[in-house]
Design goal:
CATH superfamily: Ribonuclease H-like superfamily/Ribonuclease H
Number of domains: 1
Shape: globular
Radius of gyration: 18 Å
CATH architecture: 2-Layer Sandwich
Order of helices and strands: EEHEHEHHH
Length: 168
């Protein structure tokens, strides 16, 4: 959102920092995740930005886009958000047999490496003040590209989970 996440900051003793921002609820929705190449042990990040809330259409688009970019079988591990509803994705899995969807247990963010991506991204954007959604989108893309270029940061997102160690 254009309302920035506020984190602790430095200020001279006795002077409360003032964080000025536009009180606008414009937002960008992000769908994304971490990829693990089983052969090369290389990690990647894939994401799509949207100006509206993400619905089944955007989920389909993201999965189709992943299939265009990844070779072989694609196994997607997802949380149980309503937009990831299994019944609505069965048709897509039948249409693309190399797409396999599995779900994390309900209320188990500690298993999801994407949570580490969101945490790092929000921390990098904390105390920022984008003027509009275009600037926010640029900031998000910059952070995602920075993460993409750092295998150690992406490995940290997986290492902080309770997933099997062969993924680290």
């Amino acid at each position: 959102m254009l309302i920035p996440p506020v984190r602790r900051t430095w200020a001279p003793r006795g002077h409360t920092p003032i964080h000025r921002h536009h009180y606008r609820r414009d937002r960008i929705s992000v769908i994304g995740g971490v990829s693990v190449s089983p052969q090369r042990k290389r990690l990647g990040i894939y994401f799509r930005l949207h100006e509206t809330n993400i619905s089944n259409d955007e989920v389909y688009d993201f999965l189709w886009w992943l299939l265009k970019h990844l070779r072989g079988h694609v196994i997607v591990l997802w949380d149980n958000a309503s937009i990831h509803a299994e019944s609505s994705l069965r048709t897509l899995c039948k249409q693309y047999p190399r797409l396999h969807i599995e779900y994390f247990p309900t209320y188990a963010p500690e298993l999801n490496p994407a949570e580490g991506i969101w945490t790092q991204t929000k921390a990098a954007l904390a105390n920022g003040r984008p003027d509009d959604t275009w600037e926010l989108a640029d900031d998000l893309i910059d952070k995602f590209q920075q993460l993409q270029g750092s295998q150690s940061l992406l490995r940290a997102c997986i290492a902080q989970t309770e997933l099997p160690s062969f993924l680290h």
